[in-house]
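Before the break, one more example. Copy the sequence into your notebook; we will annotate it together after we see the structure.
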Amino acid sequence: MSEANWYVVHTYSGYENKVKANINKTIENRHLEEQILEVRVPMQDVVEMKNGAKKQVQKKMFPGYVLIHMIMNDDTWYVVRNTRGVTGFVGPGSKPVPLTEAEMRPLGIQTENVTVDFAEGDTVIVMGGIWKDTVGVIQSMNHNKQSVTINVDLFGRETPVEINFSEIRRM
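Here is what the structure looks like once it is written out:
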């Protein structure tokens, strides 16, 4: 199996989030979770002056572009390339060029794997985010995305939730 790399996709301006949603929906429908690992629209915090008041807002770092962490093959290329709003991959002709480690560093996207001391079936506690202080049992682990799926009690019902490795610890 090939190695997953980050690729840049050019989109219509203003369609970045729509493209991300469409690709994520296609991943789910075609069961490509093991091949297309993550879709990102990189954002940055910017301070704007409006009506004399400073306001912190999030702006797209690269308007018109979406980053995709995927294993490049004919199926994944076809899915991404034929998503509504996508004009093509960044690279010469129809050959996408993956981003290098040096190009990824300023974006704050880590590619090294984290070693963890928990496994499926272990009870963990969530240390941050909206599920802070929630206790759950690990149902599945995705080492590529560096996340686990735990079941949490939501409105009296067991609901699966995906949490990053960095936000949980073993009980």
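Residues 5-107 form a domain with the Alpha-Beta Plaits fold (CATH 3.30.70.940). The longest strand covers residues 43-50. Try to locate both features in your own notes.
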